[in-house]
Amino acid sequence: MPELVFFSGTMDCGKSTLALQIEHNRSARGLQGMIYARDDRAGHGKLSSRLGLVTEAVEAVPDLDFYAHVVGVLTAGNRADYVIVDEAQFLTPLQIDQLARIVDDLGLDVFAFGITTDFRSKLFPGSQRLVELADRVEVLQVEALCWCGARATHNARTVGGEMVVEGAQVVVGDVNQSESEVGYEVLCRRHHRRRMTAAGARAASLSPDVLPVDSPAGPPTAP
């Protein structure tokens, strides 16, 4: 039976790599898919991973009707056996409904990839709708790590290395940006709650006032 599957995880956990792997495996068996992406790091109309893999994609602009677009492809005599959508958290709830309709009315598998919560740990509307409608929600098992080595569970937005918790929900950026730019960092829940980024942790470790401790007393002197 065709399914709507939501693959979720933090940034930097291999979602786009898995999307490209699914595309490779299915195309190697003679199947043809429709690939959509939104605000990819490689540019407009691309789906790429941090490992350097990239393929062409349809840019999932906010007013794109996924169902109508796939129907148009099919009625033009072209083939579509499945659909892949990357950065699905940026889609509108209506667009998620359109993906579900592709599964139910056209009988195609739809694989959606995205992060669940934003930099404030609030659900993206698109991700929320996917959780509500998906036949399966798969949490990726490749764990991104916080700077402390613990499993990263939250996405933090940074400006100048400092974590920020206000601003527009969607601001394009990436991990490993220079500290002068708007960037993102994955953190464990503890350090996300404490707003402690890697840059902040380095600054704290260099501060002589982090853990004030009295100097140990010298050895006792002989009477």
3D structure, described in words:
- Helix 2 packs parallel to helix 3 (93-106) and helix 3 (93-106) runs parallel beside helix 4 (125-133).
- The strands form three sheets. This protein has a six-stranded parallel beta sheet with strand order 5-2-6-7-1-8, with helices on both faces. It has a three-stranded antiparallel beta sheet with strand order 10-9-11. Strands 3-4 form a two-stranded antiparallel sheet.
- The protein has 223 residues and is α/β, with parallel strands linked by helices.
- The chain starts with a strand and ends in a 17-residue tail after the last helix.
- It has two domains: 4-139, Rossmann fold (3-Layer(aba) Sandwich); 154-201, no CATH class.
- The chain has helices at 15-27, 66-75, 93-106, 125-133, 189-193, 198-206; strands at residues 4-8, 33-37, 46-48, 54-56, 58-59, 82-85, 109-114, 136-139, 154-159, 162-164, 182-187.
